[in-house]
Amino acid sequence: MVGGRVGLAISPHLLTGLARDRTSILVSGTNGKTTTTALVATGWGGDVVTNDTGSNMPAGHVAAFAGSRSPRAALEVDEAWLGAVLAQVHPRVVVLLNLSRDQLDRASEVRQMAERWRKVLGDGDERVVVANANDPLVVYAASEATNVRWCDVPTPWQADARSCPKCTLALEHDEGTWLCSCGFAKPATITTSLRDGLVIAGERYELKLALPGAFNEANAAMAVTALVQVGVKASDALARISEVEAVAGRFTRRRWNARTFRLLLAKNPAGFDALLSNVEADQADLWIAINAHVADGHDPSWLYDVPFEKLRGHRVWCLGERRLDLATRLDYAGVEFRVVDDLNELPVEAREVDLIANYTAFSEWLARSVPC
Amino acid sequence: MLSIANLVPDLLGTYGDGGNGLVLAQRARERGEETLLVTMEINDPLPDASIYLLGGGEDGPQRLARDVLARTSLASRVRDGATVVAVCAGLQILGSSFSVEGNDQYAGLGLCDVTTTRGASRSVGELRVRVGERLLVGFENHAGRTSLGDDVKPLGRVEHGRGNDGTYDGFRADTIWATYAHGPVLAQNPWFADAILSSVLGYELETLGSVADLLYEERCRAIRS
After folding, report:
1. Residues A348, A354, A360, CA angle at the centre, nearest 5°?
2. Domain ranges of chain A
3. Right CATH number for A252-371 from 2.40.50, 1.10.287, 1.10.132, 3.90.190?
4. Is A98 helix (H, G, I), strand (E, B) or coil?
5. Which residues of B touch A101 (CB under 8 A)?
6. What ipTM score was computed for the predicted complex, to two decimals?
7. How confident is the model over A32-62, as pLDDT tens digits?
8. How far off is chain B from A366, nearest CA to CA, in Å?
9. Model confidence, pTM
10. CB of A212 closer than 8 Å to CB of A245
11. Distance between A218 CA and the closest CA of chain B, angstroms
């Protein structure tokens, strides 16, 4: 990463030059960026420039381009950097997954982010925007763009779009659609749908993923829609991404000190909600690790926006530097918990457990454990 | 029956503020009080409640929340003795005017002689406030600079962070409790939750003893003055 920063210091136009004459697809949004970017890269096939180290700001993009001569690039972009990267990379396609509350102590509030996206996307450029039609904030951001392919994909988290992004009145949700009395509504022209299997531009496809969860089906549907825009056959892309089992350590099986677990990343309420919906009823124990470093956001207030009540009947082992914040939240949710001050207190079980961790806690556990 | 109402969380509830209602309800139930926790969304009428809760929010929703609540009987209910607990943007709405979208003169609900203008910079970080013999610990994230009228008492004196103006945080009136410590401030400060409950229920509460007490001690150690 030092290489990337030094590069930018040499020339602010370096990224523009490196991206020139290549076909780029950018992926942004609060949740699913890394996974969707990996699905785009894998689905494309062959050698693809990608920033799979998690560095999703311009320095990371410079480093990715500098390391490969491939004419194709799949890049994850931090939400706040989308405008700058669009201006420098000139992508053929930009994928907008979702927008929800995340690290509000260092990022801007979510409606401001939608407003910033709207300004940069409404610049008249001919790029294709692949956007989530079920996220009102994304729709608001993308609706001034020239070419949009709307995707009707599962988006359970709606708490940040209860009031209209355009006029702030209450949005009404009904039977898979949503609208406001000001006229702002779910787009009518849908390119990609997951409502009844995967349909892209009127063609039906079989979607089989090794990755778990409805949220990954949404990520995959949008990744394939993006690839279709650059001439990849959807069936070819789907065959390639069906084999992706893990992305940057997420969803991997790990071992630490005779304990085995599946490592899952959740950084904010929407991400947690998606993972908690996937916890199997017969899994008695769950490990959750919460830190509050810069990369996590210093303020763990968001724990009260996570519907931990879903974990009643399970027992949660509370890990990480903010384990007491987590334990207090679980206590008020009526969920059984143990506070783990010494990792050796973790039980050694025959059965693998799920470990859900936020950003820096995830990195710690990835470093501490080995694959199994 | 103790009734607690979260007011317009669809507009004011950016930072896990819904946790405050949950905490009050649970702590009352553990004292044997029959408790109802209700939510008023933007198009709902104002529910009948003993405690009303207001959270934080972005500019547009904050302005709309004020407009929605101004059309209800909230102000007269509070004058008649209902309790209000307000954090962040909710605190600003209770006053006579606040700053929103570049305008420093947006009318508040006028429950207190309190005005808020936009400060030179945003305050983001841990907040530690001396409230009598106790400490209130939390997290603030706002751009407001709040001045209290002569008859309005601050909640406490700031030992770390900014609060209203770098010296004082929040305010207190008969049944009004307001602080810039946003989000689940009552979860981090169980004594504060109990002080509010005790004032509403009219009797001294027995200590509960839970993991929240450990969290409170840890945060008091972590946020130095």
Report:
1. 105
2. 2-241, 252-371
3. 3.90.190
4. coil
5. 14
6. 0.96
7. 999 999 999 999 999 999 998 778 999 999 9
8. 27
9. 0.87
10. no
11. 25
